[in-house]
Design brief:
Blueprint lengths: L1 H11 L8 H16 L3 H6 L4 H24 L7 H21 L18 E4 L6 E3 L1 H7 L10 E5 L3 E3 L1 H14 L5 E3 L9 H15 L6 E3 L6 H7 L1 H5 L6 E3 L7 H10 L8 E3 L6 H13 L6 E3 L7 H11 L7 E3 L6 H12 L7 E3 L6 H13 L7 E3 L10 H9 L6 E3 L6 H11 L8 E3 L7 H11 L7 E3 L7 H10 L20 H7 L7 H22 L7
Parallel strand pairs: 1-3, 2-4, 3-5, 5-6, 6-7, 7-8, 8-9, 9-10, 10-11, 11-12, 12-13, 13-14, 14-15
Length: 550
């Protein structure tokens, strides 16, 4: 009898292990996002690109699953909760290990043509971030001392140079500066005391002073004003720079002023990147002066730099003189409506823009409408538009729709984390009925319901090259989810995850309208919910996966 009762208990117990394939994919996506987006940990250890993050996330999940499954074998009669805990803990541990290891850059191997014999690349950035001292530096840099070498591009990124290593590198760099065209010194003093780091930077600057560089990358060095001035000799000597990268360098108001002072010649500058600094409004004014002096600018990135309304207006005014601009990234600043309107005036003059990133700028409807109206009559070849997280409502949808309808070259559109609701999204969907090259559309977290989601699905499934529709985080009913899933039956990879959809979200009045005419199988739904309870509990545990630093 006891054996029979045990058998019955086993038959009806909820199993948390193994997780479904959908749950495993969801976890990989979440870890990929954690590794490739800005968090407290990526700011500390470095951010991975999307490809590297996804590769690591898949490997982490596979290792964690194997470890947890081995543990589950020892408790086959349990509900799997211990395996879930092991799974989550292993993922957390391995994610932190990858973050601490930092991003890895692959060695660039270029096969020179007869016209490009001076374009050889010397790259020591592959592998784990590491400190190097004199002896290792002498061995690593030995190829640069070979007579007649044709290295024109060097990358010392991901290696932390101490004073001993810098003394080895200094004469070698000085001997090569006549042939160098591209120098990447990003993340080359990590973990060094400030005094030592500044001395190392001063030595490298002196060695390279007078070189004729086209590209200089000083990113990820926490330079601040002292670091910028340590590179003063090198920066002042450059008259033909085409690309300058100063990302994640702690560039404050004072440091931005130093950049403006020490980079006097920017007439040939095509690429200027200032991502993830603490520039602020006053610093933005200094950067604006650099932009004004850069008529050849094609790619400008000043995202995540704490710029508010005044600084945003100054930058917008400066951009009016950059008529060759193709790519503009101002994401994650605090522009507000006034700076948004100022930006719209600049955008009117930009006929060549193909990529625009304006997410999280506090534009609201007024700013979004001004920008949409400006873009309608400019940027005729626009391919990518991101304007997520700006509190845009359906009131701006008509202007956005008119703008989008005119952009037939559009490939990617991101309107996520706004408040467009069904009314606004239906207008957007109608404006996208053309656009043969559209491949990615993100309208997640916009309070949309079944009707708008269905229309979006109808529009994108007619596009032969479409790749991804993201409508997650909305208020689509269970019936709507089933209907849309059926519409993508032959294109399962095109419909993004719906794990954060809330079928009961929104206000009661909208809910009643959405569910009008339903036959109300309450008991049946309750039974289905109980059956899915185990999977939901597992996903909840994994959604809240935390990375804990030691």
């Amino acid at each position: 009898m006891t054996a029979l009762l045990d058998s019955v208990r086993k038959q009806f117990s909820i199993k948390l292990w193994p997780p479904s394939e959908k749950t495993r994919v969801m976890l990989v996506e979440r870890m990929t996002a954690n590794l490739s987006s800005e968090t407290i940990f990526t700011r500390k250890y470095g951010i991975l690109n999307k490809e590297e993050a996804e590769e690591n996330a898949k490997e982490i999940e596979e290792k964690a699953f194997t470890t947890a499954n081995q543990g589950y074998v020892t408790e086959p009669d349990g509900d799997g909760s211990s395996a879930v805990q092991i799974y989550a803990k292993e993922c957390s541990k391995l994610v932190l290990e990858v973050l601490k290891r930092g991003p890895t850059a692959k060695v660039t191997r270029e096969v020179p043509t007869s016209e490009e014999v001076q374009e050889a690349v010397f790259d020591i950035s592959k592998g784990q971030r590491a400190f190097i001292e004199a002896e290792e530096a002498a061995e690593l840099l030995r190829p640069l001392k070979e007579p007649g070498n044709n290295y024109a591009k060097i990358c010392f990124s991901n290696r932390s140079f101490g004073l001993g290593a810098a003394r080895v590198a200094e004469p070698i760099l000085a001997s090569l500066k006549g042939q160098l065209k591209e120098v990447d010194l990003s993340d080359f003093i990590a973990g060094r005391p400030e005094a030592e780091a500044l001395e190392v930077m001063t030595m490298f600057s002196a060695a390279l002073e007078g070189s004729n560089l086209k590209l200089l990358n000083l990113s990820n060095n926490a330079l601040g004003e002292k670091g910028i001035r340590a590179f003063g000799a090198l920066l002042k000597s450059q008259s033909n720079l085409e690309e300058l990268y100063l990302m994640n360098d702690g560039i404050s108001e004072e440091a931005a002023r130093a950049v403006c002072e020490l980079v006097p010649s920017t007439e040939k500058l095509r690429v200027l990147h200032f991502h993830n600094n603490m520039t602020g409004d006053e610093g933005a004014r200094s950067i604006a002066e650099v932009v004004k002096r850069s008529p050849s600018l094609e790619d400008f990135r000043c995202s995540s730099t704490r710029i508010g309304s005044d600084g945003g207006a100054a930058l917008s005014e400066a951009l009016e003189s950059c008529l060759l601009l193709k790519k503009l990234d101002l994401r994650d600043n605090m522009f507000g409506v006034e700076a948004g309107v100022a930006l719209s005036k600049a955008l009117l003059k930009h006929k060549n823009l193909t990529e625009i990133y304006l997410s999280y700028l506090n534009l609201y409807d007024e700013g979004a409408i001004a920008i949409a109206n400006a873009l309608k009559d400019s940027a005729s070849s626009l391919e990518i538009l991101e304007i997520a997280g700006n509190d845009i409502t359906s009131s701006a949808a008509s202007a956005l729709g008119a703008c989008l309808e005119a952009k037939q070259s559009l490939r990617k559109l991101n309107l996520s984390e706004n408040e467009l609701k069904d009314e606004g999204v239906l207008l957007i969907a109608k404006s996208l009925e053309g656009h043969p090259g559209l491949s990615d559309l993100d309208v997640s977290t916009n309070m949309i319901r079944r009707a708008a989601a269905r229309v979006l699905a109808q529009v994108v499934t007619k596009k032969p090259g479409f790749k991804l529709l993201n409508i997650n985080g909305n208020f689509i009913s269970d019936e709507g989810v089933d209907e849309i899933t059926e519409m993508f039956k032959k294109l399962p990879d095109v419909l993004g995850s719906l794990d954060e959809n809330d079928p009961e979200g929104g206000d009661e009045e909208e809910e009643e309208e959405e569910e009008e005419g339903a036959d109300g199988d309450g008991d049946e739904k309750e039974q289905e919910e109980e059956e899915d309870n185990g999977a939901e509990e597992l996903e909840d545990k994994l959604k809240n996966l935390d990375v804990e630093d030691d």
